């Protein structure tokens, strides 16, 4: 993963649930051109919905990969459903909660809830739901060969796992 759309893992229940957060800063490049006011309307920067989906995909992908201690290459296979009811904007913190619905040798399906932190009272407000399916490439049915190394790992990805205390899940 080249771009990480989560900052930290805050909760982990092995084999069933993972929660991650992303703090949205106005200095992030994604906000510079997204409703920036160049069209004559007042600036209204929002996190694109596709990046909210990617944040959930990374959260759920970590959960699915952790089941087999990241020995398999887990990739997003399908976005089953997305419902985003409110925007995420600079200055907010969003929370991704992923749970495994089904898991087998071929892959997994996950359910996800996206919430936004209300800084005034510390409560989380649901702003969306995202259901995803993942494939284990090493057990794919296409017969294609993939590289032996786990190409979804990056230094940022490893650092998030280490920071969450999940470094013993990584086979080096």
How is the secondary structure organized here?
Blueprint lengths: L7 E6 L3 E7 L25 H19 L6 E11 L8 E11 L3 E12 L4 E14 L18 H9 L9
Antiparallel strand pairs: 1-2, 2-4, 3-6, 4-5, 5-6
What proportion of the residues form beta strands (DSSP E)? Answer: 35-45%
Question: Main sheet?
Answer: 6 strands, antiparallel
Q: Helix and strand string, N-terminal first?
A: EEHEEEEH
Count of all domains:
1
Q: Could you state the CATH homologous superfamily?
A: Hotdog Thioesterase
Using the coordinates shown, work out and report the CATH topology. Answer: Thiol Ester Dehydrase, Chain A
Q: Just name the CATH architecture.
A: Roll
Quickly give the structural class: alpha+beta
The helix count comes to: 2
**N-to-C CA distance:** 17 Å
Low-pLDDT sequence parts:
none
Approximate shape: globular
Mean pLDDT: 87
CATH classification class? Alpha Beta
Rg over C-alpha atoms, rounded to the nearest angstrom? 17 Å
Number of E-type strands: 6
* Sequence of strands across the biggest β-sheet: 1-2-4-5-6-3
